[in-house]
Amino acid sequence: MDYLASVVQVIPGEDFTVYAYFSDGSVRQANMRPYIEKGGVFARLSDEKFFRERLTVMNGAVAWDVTGTRDATQCIDFDPCVMYENSPVVVDPLHSA
Predict the structure, then answer these.
(1) Which of 5, 30, 41, 62 could form a disulfide bond with 84, CB atoms 3.0-4.6 angstroms apart?
(2) What pTM did the predictor assign?
(3) What is the C-alpha separation between 64 and 9, in angstroms, rounded?
(4) Alpha-carbon distance 97 to 86, whole Å?
(5) pLDDT tens, position by position, for the chain (97 residues)?
(6) H or E segment to which residue 7 belongs
């Protein structure tokens, strides 16, 4: 991979999906449900309110701010390279509304 994936914006979608806006201009839709269902660190995201309200970008990655303090050591984040490579490019939902 020549491009080092970096997320610049993220918005929540329906049914535990996220729209990740990457620095190359692409928008990708990631389904987080399979990760949530596996449990572990992602289990906390099963609370839809937490999932939607704590969603943010930290260090170029889709992340959930666990403490509400923007402390990158206290977040749940998802590898931006994995998200970039495994999520389909979609039309920007903010432009299609």
Answers:
(1) 5
(2) 0.91
(3) 13
(4) 25
(5) 588 999 999 999 999 999 999 999 999 999 999 999 999 999 999 999 999 999 999 999 999 999 999 999 999 999 999 999 999 999 999 886 5
(6) strand 7-12
